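cron nightly-structures :: item 1 of 1
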Amino acid sequence: MNAIIPFSNMEFQLNKIKMRVTTSGFLLLILVSLKAYCQSIEGSGSQAPRILTTRAEEDYSSLNNNDSLDFFLNDLKFISLNQNGSTYLTLGGGYRARMDYTRNGNFGVEDETSYLQRLNFHAALNFNHRVKVFTEFYHGLSSAGEVTLQTDDIDLHQAFVDWKIVDVEDNMVKLRLGRQEIGYGSSRLVGIRNGPNIRRSFDMAQVRMKFQQTKIDVFYGAEVGVSANAFDNTSVLIDSDNTNPELWGIYMNKSLSGNLRALELYYLGFHSDFSAFNDVAGEETRHSFGLRSYGSLGRFTYNSELIFQIGEIDNNDVFAYNFEADWKYRLSDKGWKPQVGLRLDWSSGDQEAGDNKVGTFNPIFVNPGIYSLASVNTPANMTSLHPNISIRPTEKLYIYFDYAFFYRTQKSDGFYRPPRFLSRPASSSNERYLGETFGLLINYEINRNFSFDVVTYVFVSGSFIEESGESENISFIAPTLSFKF
């Protein structure tokens, strides 16, 4: 007689298998990283093409008939498929292992420790420097169980075709169709969401143009919804019943003064079937117009951005704004190269409830970790100031300390969490002060492939949080080991 296995036992066995895979993957990461470290000492990894945050933009065409570069797994970066090497395959991927500890998450009294892992693999097939087919798979796991944006058995994260219609000297026109990552500026409105296991991607059509020192992107698409099971993330580009948030726009970047400075102008359109703010909820269409200027002047670096938004939410008119200024000054070019900085963020809030107007700034697809990996707050109805300091004891070691305090811009508006969700309504307190944070980032780049970093943050609750509900101070720490090839 066949035995009947209870569902709970099946689930237990599945979790055991997942944890065995997790442990094996972590040990493999250490062994492979040690090998990469040894090879970087012996070889010329420092001269190899850079490993980029957006892996689809990497270019290994320089390896064609080039035997002078010898770095870890270089044979996977240029696999020639014809005699002259004009058609070639590039393989790559990564493994990220992280321990998360959060004390008093969401201002409550619950503590949580979890192991997180991200595994990704990509392949880029290049044809005659004109056409590229790029695919990337992602896997995410959390020991805490099924967690949004942290768990996904496996799914197609990116799958697109690039076609260079024009490629002459400094002029280029490229069409990109399919599932893809995009990120612009300082991730104030559109970021790739690198903090959680599963990064953000869009099903999108995009035209990229470059005319000497000017780059222009024109695009339309919709965010990909992330689900926990295998190959169940929602595909939305040609779905007439799509309910995922949509994004379209035009983004221009103009390099100035020999690439030391740059100016960006952009328009971004956003549509969501449902959005919720302090006193209004419903269908939202919003238009963002932005100007960003950034660059360096000697030891001084700057990044300033101004955004205006108009639109409509459930027949309520939108007018909102955001201003960010991030200034840094390097005190010395010698020794530890200390640098001091000051950052200001001013995001509008709603001025009056029930007036058929919405003044809350919407950061639409902002990176959750724009303030911290703990994802406590987001730039909506918020005014904050961030003094900071950084040092480089060695070329590979970077240490950054940040202090910040936050206020509600308008008392008549609430408190929001990433990316754009109302966490506490304005009616819960008449106080403005939200709290203060102390943050520390330590990053050590062991070599081209291997890095270790620790992020820790403490959020000390202010008077608004204390009067509006649970208000325990939040502590967060996340040591992370990463391997990329």
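cron nightly-structures :: done
The radius of gyration is 24 Å.
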